[in-house]
Design brief:
- The chain is an alpha/beta fold.
- It is 40% helix and 11% strand.
- The protein folds into two domains: 21-133, no CATH class; 145-306, no CATH class.
- It has helices at residues 21-39, 67-79, 90-95, 145-157, 191-205, 215-223, 228-248, 261-270, 274-290, 294-306, and strands at 57-58, 86-89, 99-100, 107-113, 120-128, 132-133, 163-166, 172-174, 179-183.
- The strands form three sheets. It has a four-stranded mixed beta sheet with strand order 1-2-5-4. A three-stranded mixed beta sheet has the order 7-9-8, covered by helices on one side.
- Strand 4 (107-113) and strand 5 form a beta hairpin.
- The longest helix is centred in the last third of the chain and has 21 residues, at 228-248.
- The N and C termini lie far apart (48 Å).
- Mean pLDDT is 84; it is low at 1-21 and 312-326.
């Protein structure tokens, strides 16, 4: 079977669906996420602690399920009460000496079959490891917090957009100057809140015409804060922020997204494929934020693997941070 893909076709793209299942897949995915948005429990609306295994992975290969497949499995795993983020195919269960629990029901994910004249989207079924018996799997210990902070610092230091720290309390992106303004580090209540705020504005700024030239970015700045495009853009930004935080290993702090929930629900009801499309684009955004720091991230990952049993280096106690709101501001600010 070809490797599972993460992206759905863009609007109007000439990609055949091959079978009827993908439309049912998108409807099921959208319905699940709509309920989670309304309940305030969608993955990007929930806080996640540093090192928490959140991004779904294949239990055998260790590879992440990214884009739409990753968010779909995270959403479905949450709905079904699974606490393990690892998934596996029936073939992998059999080949690794395990078996599925009686009555186990899997989740269908998308992959793109490029074997024919035209690419075709198909589905395959995976199961959470909690539905298996007899598999002997090792879980890697979480990355030490100080390694995660160094990784986050490396990503921010190599931002494609200048980041200016300000003594004020607001963070925002200035499009006509192509720069980001965020409060000074000491004004944040935690390091994770600082990192998430920076990632959030970096994710939004990635849509600039000199970078990803994202449709939702252009339309959001054209329509303003109350437009539907702004809601679709913010959906991509929030998922990308969550994904980036999880990839570098820091905790995830959701923004105050109450104003966007109705826009998100409306968009998903109008087009069930929008959530998969948004997740796939958010994955590309996150990868783009990490790419400039990839050498440093590789070095830190190697260092983390060889020093998991070592104590963290001694550091002088940090001064208590000044109080600041726990919730980050949206990536767009009126008049910016």
């Amino acid at each position: 079977m070809p490797e599972a893909q993460t992206d759905t076709p863009r609007r109007g793209a000439a990609v055949a669906t091959g079978i009827a299942a993908p439309s049912r897949y998108h409807e099921k995915f959208a319905a699940s996420v709509i309920k989670q948005i309304e309940d305030g429990t969608a993955p990007w609306l929930r806080e996640a602690k540093a090192g928490e295994p959140a991004i779904p992975r294949n239990a055998i290969t260790g590879r992440r399920y990214t884009g739409g497949n990753g968010l779909y499995l995270a959403s479905r795993g949450q709905d079904r009460g699974f606490t393990d983020n690892r998934w596996v195919s029936k073939k992998q269960v059999r080949e690794n000496g395990g078996k599925l629990a009686r009555g186990a029901g899997g989740e269908r994910i998308l992959y793109r079959d490029d074997s024919g004249k035209r690419p075709v989207w198909r589905t395959t079924t995976v199961y959470n490891v909690e539905q298996t018996r007899g598999l002997k799997l090792d879980r890697r210990p979480p990355r030490a917090e100080w390694h995660a902070h160094r990784a986050a610092d490396a990503v921010i230091a190599r931002s494609a957009v200048p980041i200016n720290e300000s003594p004020g309390d607001l963070g925002y992106y200035v499009r006509n100057e192509d720069r980001i303004v965020i409060p000074e580090r000491g004004r944040f209540s935690s390091a994770d809140t600082y990192y998430n705020t920076a990632f959030r504005h970096m994710a939004h700024a990635s849509g600039h015409e000199n970078r990803m030239n994202r449709e939702t970015f252009r339309e959001a700045h054209s329509e303003g804060l109350d437009g539907e495009a702004h809601g679709r853009e913010q959906l991509r930004v929030e998922i990308a922020t969550m994904t980036t935080a999880q990839r570098v290993g820091v905790g995830y702090q959701p923004a105050d997204s109450e104003a966007y929930k109705d826009l998100w629900v409306k968009a998903l009801k109008a087009d069930p494929r929008e959530i998969h499309r948004a997740a796939a684009e958010a994955d590309r955004i996150s990868r783009g934020l990490l790419r400039p720091a990839r050498e440093q991230l590789r070095d830190l990952a190697r260092e983390a693997r060889t020093s998991r049993t070592r104590p963290a280096p001694e550091r002088a106690p940090a001064a208590p941070p000044r109080p600041a709101p726990q919730r980050a501001a949206p990536s767009m600010t009126p008049g910016r």
